[in-house]
Amino acid sequence: SALPALIERLPKAELHLHIEGSLEPELIFALAQRNGVALPYASVEALRAAYAFTDLQSFLDIYYAGASVLLQEQDFFDMAWAYLLRAQADQVVRAELFFDPQTHTERGVPFEVVIRGLHRACRQAQASLGVSADLILCFLRHLSEEEALATLQQALPYRDLFIGVGLDSAERGHPPEKFARVFAQARALGLHVVAHAGEEGPPAYVWSALDVLQVERIDHGVRSVEDPALMDRLAAQGVPLTVCPLSNLKLCVVRDLADHPLPTLLAAGLKATINADDPAYFGGYLNDNWRATFAALPQLGPAQAYALARHSLEATFAPPEVQAAWV
Ligand code: ADE
Ligand code: ZN
């Protein structure tokens, strides 16, 4: 059928992409060598073989270990540039990249080194790839709100180099309301606000991300299907959901892609989108996610492909003059 060709050529936005999750084993080894960092794996193959996850935490442990090779501004640039080249090949016209500063500042890497390297890659993508790219600073929810507040303070001198804040890492036991004050501060600064909710955590976390954090998008949100009143709210309010099918499969949020709730979300009128989350760890970039999802779910056809691409472009935080180029 023409569906795979349609998927390839549709312009789309990627709204849920952890830049540290785009770090391929080959680049991890190259950066380890360049920086003199010792890795507990003998080879690229041995590292990739360790990518067998049972839940979110089993992934996070290896994902934070992989990020330990990032030390210099050029390392952050190289990582983001490799992703943005890959995104361009998937017809991504807009990418909003999550980054986890606390993963790096905890290891003694200055915040400025992280954000300057990432931001330079975003600017170069706009100039030479025609990909509009911006950064969203994520707080690690397994750490305290005091640490998140300190991270926001550290980021203030670079306020113009990122467009919003998010919330990621271990969801269970760390509800959105734990971060009420830091999100209120971020909103007062005019930053966009998003949060991971309803990935492993219950629908109650989606409610509190909306009501307490007042987020503009929900990252994942797939467990919303368990709560009909929440589904009605998300549909009525037009809240975008940044869904990550291969991530959900690899982290055992769903047993099989054929069981994925994406068709249910779309049929209920939710503004769902497809995203890669951590492509180097979950076996695929954006179009790989699209292809695998459409192949596994016969309910998804051309109408759903157009809707998903349109949702992604409508859900971006790109300035209106940038959005005008997509219509
Ligand atoms: N950090 C990177 N990927 C994540 C995910 N899928 N959920 C929570 N935190 C993350
Ligand atoms: Zn994520």
TrEMBL record:
The Adenosine deaminase domain, residue ranges = 11-327
The answer to keyword Hydrolase applying to this record is yes
The EC number of this protein is 3.5.4.2
Q: Which GO terms describe its cellular component?
A: cytosol
Q: Which reaction does it catalyse?
A: adenine + H2O + H(+) = hypoxanthine + NH4(+)
Which Pfam families does the record match to this protein? A_deaminase
Amino-acid positions noted as binding substrate in the UniProt annotation, renumbered to this chain: 278
Tell me its cofactors. Answer: Zn(2+)
Any keyword Hydrolase?
yes
Tell me which domain of life the UniProt entry assigns to the organism this sequence originates from: Bacteria
Q: Where does Zn(2+) bind?
A: 16, 18, 196, 277
Q: Which InterPro entries match?
A: A_deaminase_dom, ADE, Ado/ade_deaminase, Metal_Hydrolase
Q: Which GO terms describe its molecular function?
A: adenine deaminase activity; zinc ion binding
Residues the UniProt record annotates as site (Important for catalytic activity): 220
Biological process according to GO: adenine catabolic process; hypoxanthine salvage; nucleotide metabolic process
Keyword annotations for this protein, in alphabetical order, are:
Hydrolase, Metal-binding, Nucleotide metabolism, Zinc
Q: What does the record say about how the cofactor binds? A: Binds 1 zinc ion per subunit.
* Gene3D superfamilies documented for this protein: Metal-dependent hydrolases (3.20.20.140)
Q: Which residues act catalytically here?
A: 199 (proton donor)
Described purpose of this protein according to its UniProt entry:
Catalyzes the hydrolytic deamination of adenine to hypoxanthine. Plays an important role in the purine salvage pathway and in nitrogen catabolism.
Membership in a protein family: Belongs to the metallo-dependent hydrolases superfamily. Adenosine and AMP deaminases family. Adenine deaminase type 2 subfamily.
Q: What is this protein called?
A: Adenine deaminase
Source species: Ideonella livida
